[in-house]
Amino acid sequence: MSIDHSFSIISSIELKCPDDYIVEGRNILRRGDAIMFNSTNHGAIAKANIFYGPYWTLSPGVYLFGFNGELDGELKVDFACQEGVVVLKTLTIDNFLDPVCLAVIKTSPKFEVRGFKTPALNVLKLNSISVETISFPLSLA
Q1: Residue 57, Cα to own-chain centre: how many angstroms?
Q2: N- or C-end of the chain: fewer Cβ atoms within 10 A?
Q3: Using CA atoms, how far apart are residues 138 and 61, in angstroms rounded to an integer?
Q4: What is the pLDDT of residue 138?
């Protein structure tokens, strides 16, 4: 049996930030190539969602998502497809040290990673999300 490995990156530029964070025509969560949330500056905004995207089509396989940046506090993360209609996995993370594993058993269109503020989130700086894909060929038998 042949196992395929591939690696890709979701840059923060590929992720969207809600319009609730637009002030004077500029999204205040965007800082250069990063998404930056600070509870002191942004905590009063009612919208819990901080980022979402990139709307890929995921094939069946095992995916390891590594978040790159800084995290002080807790960030709720979910993995969804079909524009958020189907949530594949939800968890709260308090560090970016360990990758998050997601097993996908069928093709998932319009896949997105979504990040949400929690009462315990102080600071988030997201530069990118690395994606390691492990896929297995489908049996023809």
Answers
A1: 14
A2: C
A3: 10
A4: 61
Residue partners of 80: CB distance under 8 A and separation at least 6: 86, 87, 88, 111, 112, 114
Cβ atoms of residues 58 and 107 within 8 Å: yes
The residue type at 130:
S
State the CATH number of the domain containing residue 40.
Answer: 2.60.120
| Total structural domains within the chain | 1
Q: Which two tokens stand for residue 14?
A: 């590929």
Compute how many other C-beta atoms are within 10 angstroms of the C-beta atom of residue 127.
Answer: 17
Return the pLDDT at 136.
72
Per-residue pLDDT averaged across 47-70, rounded? 96
Instruction: Provide the domain limits for residue 37.
Output: 4-135
Tell me the per-residue pLDDT of 71-130, one tens digit each, with 9 for 90 and over.
999 999 999 999 899 999 999 999 999 999 999 999 999 999 999 999 999 999 999 999
